[in-house]
Amino acid sequence: MTTAATIDTRAVTDRRPLRFATTDDLRRDIDLLTEADRAGALRAAGNWSLGQAFGHLAAWIDYAYDGYPPEARPPWFVKVICRMMKKKFFAGGLPAGVRIPRVEGGTFGIDPMPTDEGRARLLRALDRLDRAPPPLPSPVFGPLTHHEWRRFNLGHAELHLSFFHPD
Fold first, then answer.
1. What pairs with residue 42 in β-bridges?
2. d(Cα 30, Cα 159) in Å, to the nearest integer?
3. Which residues contact 138 (CB under 8 A, 6 or more apart)?
4. Predicted TM-score of the model (pTM)
5. Which of 18, 39, 69, 106 has the fewest Cβ atoms within 10 angstroms?
């Protein structure tokens, strides 16, 4: 959900500190946030609805199995820079506010959707990720091990779900 005045998420200081060690940790947070949303006790510090964030995370997991949008292929110099920073991203988290140039909304998989639909998609994608590593290389980092795929997607979830507070 994009508000009339879009929030610059790079400047948001009101984010939950998250660190998921396993996909089970992530599943517990998904349940916590879903329950808070159903109870009307969820506060968002960013631009998206919870269903939208869940759907976005699911889409990016599924892209590694089913194919990426062609516009998701970064220029060579971005790949070089990101590959040099891979360990930092995987250990310390992903930066907020990164946008893919010339892509409406700055990224893919951000269609508005109800929380329960986004949740179901994300849980299916996590089951898929737990069963087997994606066959496609990351468009940014290249080939990844199964452990690296999990860590990357956990970090991606830490980033986006940190904007939601189960008050």
1. 166
2. 13
3. 64, 144, 152
4. 0.87
5. 39
